[in-house]
Specification:
The chain is of the alpha+beta class. The protein has one domain: Superoxide dismutase, copper/zinc binding domain (Immunoglobulin-like, Sandwich). It is about 15% helix and about 45% strand. It contains 2 helices and 10 strands. Strands 7-6-9-10-3-4-5-8 form an 8-stranded antiparallel β-sheet, with no helix packed on it. It has a two-stranded antiparallel sheet with strand order 1-2. Strand 6 and strand 7 form a beta hairpin. The N and C termini lie far apart (about 55 Å).
Amino acid sequence: MTSLVWIAVIALVVIEGWLLLSDNRQVQPGVGGGPAVISEQDRTEFNLDAINKDQFDQSGKATLEENDGKVRVTLAVNQVEGLNNQPAHIHLGSCPDAGEVIFPLNNVVDGKSVTEISTTLDSLRSSQSPMAINIHKSAEESNVYTACGNLP
């Protein structure tokens, strides 16, 4: 009887391990150090490409993660000498000629920006118009884009 119990326990451990490894979710730390599971449908990542590569070879990634009905926008780009405290926005339109600002984002400082916006990924994805994230050279030269990426 004891052998049968051990076989059942081992079988359960193997099945549980297989289920965890085959799951297509990422586990990230949550509130209070507990795990918060963010599925792929609640996260999107895309490239921010250099716009004026000959002047400012700035590029990187944008990550959008939804949690509790809000989207956290994280920008991570390489630092370029002379560029810091750069405005960033989600604009209507596509790169490189994006239009109206839809969501202002926190400035990019030392190559990083994190902003929480009051919308959902579904809302962003279902928009009739394309949208893009632009990073600007500075507040004074906001018409000069350094990096841009189209929201998928």
